[in-house]
Amino acid sequence: MKTIAIDMDGVLADVYQQLIDMHYSESGITLKSSDMVGMTEAEAFPHLLKHVHTKGFFETVPLIPGGQEVVAELSKQYKIFIVSAATEFPLSLTEKHNWLNKHFPFISWQQMVFCGSKEIIKTDIMIDDHFKNLDVFDGKTFLFTQPHNEKSSPGKHERVNNWNEIKKILLG
């Protein structure tokens, strides 16, 4: 059975929406992801570090549409691993674990990989929104479109814009 490593933030978990919502609640200003195209997350969200270090941030992130359903379908034909560089934000470890248990109950604890660098990941396929993770990966790579990577050429990675595209490619 082929294996897939799937990133959490920006692929399954809509951190952009979470940050937009937090920015609005603090400032009353509505940010639009279309205004952030080509900007790093730190450039787009001036209070990024404050927010990702806020208790509850990772546990309450909304789902990216289609991810839950497509990952469930993929899990019937592939061995799925959810891989997150969670050690960068220590509060996120428990919160991400809880979030996955809530939204992806079919993913067991053995399929949750919380790490620092993803260069140790050795699956057949990786789906991620950051080049730093895909560029060091040896298997087939899919770049999940997010505002920070939208202007960039995907290079050797295949760009996917949503979960329906992933479903068409990997499930036919």
Automatic annotation (TrEMBL):
InterPro entries: 5'(3')-deoxyribonucleotidase (IPR010708), HAD-like_sf (IPR036412), HAD_sf (IPR023214)
GO annotation terms (biological process): pyrimidine deoxyribonucleotide catabolic process
Signal peptide: none
Residues annotated as the enzyme's active site: D7, D9
Molecular-function GO terms, alphabetical: 5'-nucleotidase activity
Family: Belongs to the 5'(3')-deoxyribonucleotidase family.
PANTHER family: 5'(3')-DEOXYRIBONUCLEOTIDASE (PTHR16504:SF4)
Protein name: 5'(3')-deoxyribonucleotidase
Organism: Cyclobacterium qasimii
